[in-house]
Amino acid sequence: MIVGAGISGLYQLYKLRNLGLTTRVYEAGDDVGGTWYWNRYPGLRCDISSMLYSYSFSPELEQEWNWTEKYATQPEILRYVNHVADRFDLRKDITFSTRVVSAVYDEVNKLWQVTTDTGEVVETQFLIMATGVLSAPKKPDIAGIEKFRGSTYHTAQWPREDVDFAGKRLAVIGTGSSGVQSIPILAQRAADMTVFQRTPCFTIPAGHRPLTEKEVADMKANYQEFHKLQHKSRTGVLMEPPSKSALEVTEEERNAAFQAAYETGCIFAIGNTFHDIRINKAANEMAAEFLRQKIQSVVRDPEVAESLSPRTFPYGTKRICLDTKYYETFNLPHVHLVDLRKTPLVEITETGVRTSEKEYEVDAIVFATGFDAITGALTRIDIQGKGGVSLKHKWAEQGPRSYISMAISGFPNLFVVTGPLGPGVFSVMTMAIEHDVNWITDCIRYLREQSIAEIEAMAEAEDEWAEFVVSAANKTLFPLANSWYMGANVPNKPRGFMAYVGGFAEYKQKCDEVAQKGYEGFAMLSPIL
Ligand code: NA7
């Protein structure tokens, strides 16, 4: 059984079906797409270029599908996912509009008993969580939210039909990627817009444009070679590793490198200009200051420009955003910025949003408040492993942990695609997903060939992996930010760095070694013959 029919779940279904297993996917939405199904807010695009944010498992699929833009829009990605589902006839094994609510491991029979919100109880030997890393929307923790008499929207649960904001006074709360992408477009639609910002983000222009025929043809001619190189890279976006320190070059050379990276519109580019941007505060501050100057050069009101300038966390330690005329939007006469660090948000009232300074009357509120990332989709399901221990409880006590991101000690025969403590969110997600699905499938094939009934990550292996991941993060500036990578954006969420920053290639090598050594770090139990 697979939970989730997004990019992970669909590929996992394809692989297990080819392995000859009876496989069923359960999906809460009424169609495929996962995060691309639920997030439909205006302006949503992927922040990885479309030619890379694609499956690589089928050369035929790669050759026949034509991406039209540098960064694909949400509707185009959803069309692509639907095409994949149809092309490989995947829908027949998916139960839609059905949410998994609990999964309890039956230690005697070595089966997971899974219950859905439609009352169905399913028994499965292998339970694969393809539940996504940015799929559990974070409800805004703001007092009075239920009192508001106007309309409210969450970017991650956007209605299917276009929302008409014409003539409306609109509030937007949140300025991460979802806010940054939607604010310029919402500003065009609303009569008046107030953006409530708690923390400004770093964002660079995406440089959206159609792909040229030559770009598409060149990539299609080299896709297979390209994937081989991707697997040896840190992120899956091929970039020459930097050799110099930002501190050893002239200001002119430094700014030229930052400018060139800025113009690529690639989220990894500025971090890749010098080898110490991610690890040295002084070097990092130079990149941060370069970007703050960009803000000042665009935003006319110096006070607004300063409010939009991030100063409380190092560059890159919160996800970089890609935008289209984000800063320009704050020059429009009907767009207002409320800096919640100066005048904190107090409550939502019947008629608007009240800060410590005043009440802002609005007709609609858009919450762009993000996700309970990486672990949220898993802890929202009541998952009970050996001894009835709940996953939520385990992670509350120990912090989010896993063994090589795909397995969890105490939860046998349960696999997670791009789970906590993996490199997924720092790499091309489709590549990370395909890697994990391939590894999980190979593992299941091995178990069946060896007549092994149960596999479980050992606690010591999990501890070692967690230490390894934390020590990799501690060599960087990442732990200095209250980011969703740290679980810091959700009140009362156990803190801990939830991703592996050492790069995809190193992670892949470790996973390959684990498999080659007969699934080192796992305990296995053969059935009694
Ligand atoms: P993010 O990046 O988590 O951004 C959420 C934003 O909402 C961020 O600016 C938050 O401020 C703000 N927020 C959250 N709760 C509140 C409350 N209670 N009051 C005011 N402001 C609040 O989520 P996104 O959906 O934009 O993007 C998630 C990822 O999707 C992104 O990184 C890409 O990888 C794709 P805070 O920073 O917590 O002060």
List keywords for this structure.
529 residues; 15% strand; 3 domains; FAD/NAD(P)-binding domain; 5-stranded parallel β-sheet; 15 helices; alpha/beta; binds ligand NA7; globular
In a few lines, what is going on in this structure?
With 529 residues, the chain is α/β, with parallel strands linked by helices. It has 15 helices and 21 strands.
Topology readout:
Elements lengths: L1 E2 L3 H12 L6 E2 L8 H4 L20 H6 L9 H14 L6 E2 L4 E7 L4 E6 L4 E4 L2 E3 L21 E4 L14 E5 L3 H13 L2 E6 L5 E3 L7 H18 L20 H14 L16 H18 L3 H6 L13 E3 L2 H4 L5 E5 L5 E4 L3 E4 L3 E3 L2 E4 L8 H4 L2 E3 L6 H8 L15 E3 L12 H21 L4 E4 L1 H16 L29 H13 L5 E4 L4
Bound molecules: ligand NA7.
